[in-house]
TrEMBL record:
UniProt cross-references to NCBIfam families, sorted A to Z: bact_FAD_ox (TIGR01679)
Recorded metabolic or biological pathway in which this protein acts: Cofactor biosynthesis; L-ascorbate biosynthesis
GO biological process, one term: L-ascorbic acid biosynthetic process
GO MF annotations in UniProt: D-arabinono-1,4-lactone oxidase activity; FAD binding; L-gulono-1,4-lactone dehydrogenase activity
Protein name (database record): FAD-linked oxidoreductase
Keyword terms: Ascorbate biosynthesis, Oxidoreductase
Residue intervals of the FAD-binding PCMH-type domain: 13-188
Gene3D superfamilies xref list: 3.30.465.10, 3.30.70.2520, Uridine Diphospho-n-acetylenolpyruvylglucosamine Reductase, domain 2 (3.30.43.10), Vanillyl-alcohol Oxidase, Chain A, domain 4 (1.10.45.10)
The family this protein is said to belong to: Belongs to the oxygen-dependent FAD-linked oxidoreductase family.
Domain of life per record: Bacteria
Gene Ontology cellular-component terms listed: membrane
Length: 440
């Protein structure tokens, strides 16, 4: 069917596909792929559009997986759950909670589809926990020849092609169309959350120790201030007492202040940039000072309605303090006025081929600009700081690196490209972004 213009959530990319397909079964996905191959037209699957790069741009057939949703199977004995690829993290979390289970870890946005989230390396924080893709034990993919390839433990039969899982779990959409994902989950648990404003210097001085001492630690630094807002989440069993925020306090913090008022202040900062430092100082006094205990799904993710664009890199954990000091000096030296806070998180080392945290404990540093502001000068300059620290880009966030540089940053980049050559030799699933980061 014909379509209008598609654009992502951050309004950083837009495209008018030749056509849009909305399959509701695996057989229909295979049929679309078969037809695309016959006609010599590229096909790309899309999720919720929360990537800021062109990774999901489809100039040929856009494959909308919103008709493939829900919990396919659940194994209580192993706590493994299989979800259709178009299921959002939010909906998957609710389905798990209804069955006494939970994601081991999540990021602070849960609007992404589960297939899109793993394919781009979406992650949360915690030095003992990897990104969502590290908990993938199996997935099913339709390949370029329209075959259904089962990888790992999909719960639908014997374990197959387990050797491909470290590549396919963060596959960038380059190997095929994921139609379902099987995750290793955990029993539902509570998080005791403490959010406090602290001094930037003190937090940087013991960042590694703070990260190692608790389950989940992260902070947001407001440029032009000496204050960071820290978030410390401690895991508790599901039988522990809940100490919830009042509905009024939760609405005021997460809806009114974090979204409605933040949108207004971003608009004011764009109109009068000189006010940005004062606005940021005010923000540090009005938000981020609370304590509560709630189910994990209600703590990890929070509503985000203010649109932005983001660059994020993973660097060695021990390099985070120096990198942030350099970013701070950069902003001051250039005289920029930056209204969005800088986000700092941590993750465990993993063995996934294209994971930014592959082979090393990592700190993630993310910088943002409002979607109506031009981020390029800021992002390019920050990227150079992070590259100098051995940084690897998040695949769903803005970055400016090509295949040659990425092959040096990711030790198994060449092996992934070789697997792509085998599974998609005619580049049925490629687009300009994948050609840039993987080669033609």
């Amino acid at each position: 069917m014909s379509t209008g213009i598609w654009q992502n959530w951050g309004r950083s990319v837009r495209v008018r596909p030749q056509s849009v397909a909305r399959p509701v079964s695996v057989d229909e996905v295979a049929q679309v792929v078969r037809e695309a191959a016959t006609r010599g037209i590229r096909v790309k699957a899309i999720g919720s559009g929360h990537s800021f790069t062109g990774i999901a741009i489809a100039t040929g057939i856009q494959l909308d997986l919103s008709g493939l949703t829900g919990l396919i199977r659940l194994d209580p004995a192993t706590s493994r759950a299989t979800f259709a690829a178009g299921t959002t993290l939010h909906d998957a979390g609710q389905l798990l909670e209804a069955n006494g289970l939970a994601f081991e870890n999540l990021g602070d946005i849960d609007s992404q589809t589960i297939s899109g989230a793993i394919s781009t390396g979406t992650h949360g924080t915690g030095v003992r926990f990897g990104g969502i893709a590290t908990r993938v034990v199996g997935l099913t993919m339709v390949t370029a020849d329209a075959a259904v390839l089962r990888i790992g433990d999909t719960g639908a039969g014997p374990i197959e092609h387990a050797d491909l899982l470290p590549a396919a779990a963060i596959g960038l959409g380059a190997l095929g169309v994921i139609v379902d994902v099987t995750l290793q989950c955990v029993p539902a648990f509570l998080l005791h959350s403490v959010e406090r404003p602290e001094r930037l210097g003190a937090v940087l001085a013991d960042f590694e120790a703070r990260s190692a001492a608790v389950d989940h630690f992260e902070f947001f630094w407001f440029p032009h201030t000496e204050i960071v807002l820290t978030k410390t989440n401690t895991r508790l069993p599901g039988t522990a007492p809940r100490r919830r925020l009042s509905p009024a306090r939760a609405w005021f913090d997460d809806r009114f202040m974090a979204n409605s008022i933040f949108s207004l202040t971003c608009g004011l900062a764009r109109l009068v940039p000189a006010l940005t430092p004062a606005i940021n100082r005010l923000a540090t006094t009005l938000t981020g000072d609370r304590e509560f205990t709630e189910w994990s799904t209600g703590v990890f993710a929070t509503p985000r309605t203010v649109r932005f664009r983001e660059l994020e890199y993973a660097i060695p954990l021990e390099a985070v303090p120096q990198a942030l000091r350099e970013i701070r000096s950069l902003i001051e030296d250039r005289g920029w006025r930056i209204s969005f806070p800088v986000e700092v998180r941590a993750a465990a080392a993993d063995d996934l081929w294209l994971s930014p945290a592959t082979g090393r404990a990592s700190g993630y540093i993310a910088v943002h600009r409002h979607y109506r502001e031009d981020p390029l000068e800021y992002f390019r300059a920050v990227e150079q700081i992070l590259i100098a620290q051995g940084g690897r880009p998040h695949w769903g966030k803005v970055h400016f690196q090509g295949a040659a540089a990425l092959a040096e940053a990711y030790p198994r980049h060449a092996e992934f490209v070789a697997l792509r050559d085998r599974l998609d030799p005619d580049r049925l699933f490629s687009n300009a972004y994948l050609e840039k980061v993987l080669g033609p």
